[in-house]
Prior knowledge:
Elements: H1 23-30, H2 38-45, H3 50-67, H4 85-94, H5 96-106, H6 110-118, H7 123-128, H8 135-144, E1 149-151, E2 156-158, H9 163-186, H10 188-191, H11 198-225, E3 233-238, H12 240-243, E4 253-260, H13 264-280, E5 284-285, E6 298-299, H14 301-310, H15 314-320, E7 324-328, H16 330-346, H17 353-366, H18 384-398, H19 410-419, H20 425-449, H21 462-471, H22 479-498, H23 500-513, H24 525-534, H25 540-551, H26 556-572, H27 578-591, H28 597-604, H29 606-616, H30 622-628, E8 638-639, E9 642-643, H31 650-662, H32 667-690, H33 696-726, E10 732-738, H34 740-743, E11 753-761, H35 773-792, E12 802-803, E13 816-818, H36 819-828, H37 832-837, E14 842-846, H38 848-862, H39 870-887, H40 905-919, H41 931-941, H42 946-970, H43 981-990, H44 998-1020
Parallel strand pairs: 4-5, 4-6, 11-12, 11-13
Antiparallel strand pairs: 1-2, 3-4, 3-7, 8-9, 10-11, 10-14
Amino acid sequence: MPARTTRGRIPSTGRLGLVEAHAAEDLAELGWTGADDVAVLWALSRAPDAGLALRTLVRIKEALDASGPARGDGDGGAESGPGGWGALDEALHSDSRLRARLLSVIGSSTGLGDHLAHFPGSWRRLAAAPELPGRAEIRADLLAAVDAVPEGGHGLHRAAVTGPEAVLALRIRYRDHLLLLAAVDLAPTIENEPGLEFRAVGRHLSDLADAALAAALSVAVATVCDEETVQARLAVVALGKCGARELNYVSDVDVVFVAEPADALTARLAGEMIRIGSSAFFEVDAGLRPEGKQGALVRTLDSHLAYYRRWAKTWEFQALLKARPAAGDVELGREYAAAVGPMVWTASQREDFVPEVRAMRRRVEELVPADVREREIKLGTGSLRDVEFAVQLLQMVHGRADETLHSKSTLNALAQLSAGGYVGRGDAAQLIESYVFLRLLEHRLQLQRLQRTHMLPPPGDAEALRWLARAAHVRSETRRGIVDELQRQIRRHSQHIRRLHAKLFYRPLLESVTQIDSEALRLSPEAAERQLAALGYRAPRNALGHLTALTKGATRKGRIQSLMLPTLLEWLGETPDPDAGLLAYRTLSEAMTDHPWFLRTLRDEGALAKRLMLVLGSSRYIPDLLLRAPDVVHMYADGASGPKLLAVDYTVVAQGLTRSAARHRSPERAIAAARSLRRAELARVASADVLGMLEVRQVCRALSSVWVSVLEAALHAVTRADAAESGLPAPARIAVIGMGRLGGGELGYGSDADVLFVCDPVRGEPGTPSPSDAEAVRWASGIADRVRSLLTRASVDPPLEVDADLRPEGRSGPLVRTLASYQAYYRKWAESWEVQALLRATTVAGDADLGLRFLHMIDEFRYPPGGIDADTVLQIRRMKARVDSERLPRGADPATHTKLGRGGLADIEWTVQLLQLKHAHENLELRGTSTLETLEAIERIGLLEAEDVHMLTESWLLATRARNAIVLARGKAGDQIPGTGDQLAAVAYAAGWRGDDAGEFLDHYLRVTRRARAVVDRVFG
């Protein structure tokens, strides 16, 4: 090689982007110090990482110089040619294509740089190949690496080279092909010429993978079968990105094996192929086969089909969508693909399609830790998987009726969905752009170290981001600007993909029922119904009717609804009953026609709108409340310190309710005002409950506080009206004593208010006649009757049932008694269950002093000195057994009845009350009315082990939550948890269960209550 001049000025290392201290020495080592080297130096400066490229060149030079004279046959050996480094040096100076290819690839990939440093003769492949080899040429070359020849008549080959030598030969040849592809792909970073189209890269990588699988199978044949000719048929079917011919540079290759026969020989061939392929090329993964890793490695075609017809899950059909024969007996592979194809296109009609799709989406989202979700471009938020999942779902929904959608490629399928009107044309174009951009970043990240990764560099790592931007052809005017531009593009594309579900699934539905865009392609009614059904709507025709009604007319409201509904429908689709949610939203929207703030708020407050949709789609109880208390919708928004639904003080609510009622002279209007505020508070509490913002204790406390306030307001209104009507002062004081869950401050949504009414004559001045006890009772009974009547009067609100059946003599006894009458009755006639009921008695309304005197009076009965005797304990045990056997409703399941079932509320409460009756006389801590607070006291005192108390507490909380959830989900009171189906899913969701399977909620309930029942049985002996 003629010597080159070293005269003239060359760029400084700083201008070349070489910041390492030894860069000048490395350039001198290469001999690049003269004016004739300017072209290669400027090319070096444009490499994604010029410093990495320079260091790798030095390593290649050292390897070439050490290899000596030319040797080998070009199969990855040194083959340096005369002068070693000199030949490459001359080629770099004279061949701009080679220069661009080599410098771009070694400035982007340490993995491929290592390959060149170990096998420096491979650089000649970059100079010799003007174009990428075709599919047949790649296959022939990889088979030639192990001297493979055809074997039998079923597409198999037999290699002449086996063992470690075969693995090494295949690895070198595969890396050489990868090197050439990467060099052609990356060269535009230096030459500023059009690069390879993304789809071409994926197709070439898939062709290379097919050839690699065929070569690995040829070595397996030689290894397993010795000299015996293989008569069996074995097809290797690619799935996933390889099946779609969209493979990454570094990726697992998912395969399934079809064999005739499926015997020990074909299983050994498949296993050996996996081992060789995974050692030489990439991870060969057969985990998507029937029954996964627990299933047989090879199956016959009939066995595959039998499994898919009977056992396969939705995700397995989703995987089969990309099935493609890749190696081995291609004809058998085609038979397999043709046989399973129809099953893919009918999978969306399966009963469990929607819940399984939802479960798959949740699992994908949960795979990525929250702290790196923004950097994960495959599985994170706004990621590649979002696009792929959505496109595959739409294909499966509409592919049965439209064969044009039967494409394995994500990009081709997206284009076909757009052409068919299933996706907006603009949306499809933008999604294709975003998908290609993120896949390009994924390719560059994987090339860097030839490792499987999808993680962007941390935001603070400017150098790593700068390298990625240059490798991905991002352009900017300044060195710092290229990082900003890369991050801007990543944000733009991710944000666009984040909206893909609303845009892809719901925008075409809206375009089908509106006339906003006369040029837009529209789904047919049948296609729209299929799409809605796949998104979880059980009555898709009705849902289309609701959409039409919401968007009808060229009005401003219709336009706003059209803009919002795609996102609102997506959120509704996440709920257990999107049909009911959509109907509720339509009803609410129509009721709010005269309230312009409603749509404006939904449009501007994203968190509010999402919470409202989640509530409407998961509760039959709340929508009716919101219709009559629409201002609660404002509380769905976030305030300065969190959700406004929680920014409420129970005391303030109670005061506001009683003051509002007190403004009205008429009892009817006063109680109507109290009802109105109660309605709003129920809507607030229930909404926060469904959204998971309140714990069970908080819900019970809030509901009890509302009930107490309503009772106080009603009693005050009636007594004031009575005084105004009669013109006389009240002849007696009256107090309302809360019993049961009201007395314990532990009411649920479906609970009645158990009460006792007690009165006491008003004593006049000395010498003035006082009302008799009979007069006092007669007056107080009238007051109590009127209170109960006004509160229980028919209303659209949830019932306000005031239950006084726990009074002495039950329904046969007088509604009201004097304090002395109560005392006489309890002293002489009270049965053990009546004394037990007094354990939860507390004053809730009326005359506080009278109420306190009543409580002091009953203390001698509910906390008897010395505790209860053995006979009373025996009576309570017998009564508990009778309740267990007789009070459970006919047909009810004792395992899942939240009130009277095993480990249910009654079990826990009876246990606590038995311990109170036995020990409260000597332990003041046990003299409480709350079940939970008394359980805490029982643990502190040591009456039960901490573990036992924990079991009882957990069971009580779970049963209460489930009982509340039944009301929230169904809109009416109930105690029985549904056993299966949609009703169970709705109750589980309302109870805060966000698992994939509502059956797991039921299993959890059974497990917790079973343990609690064991504690109950031990206490009752």
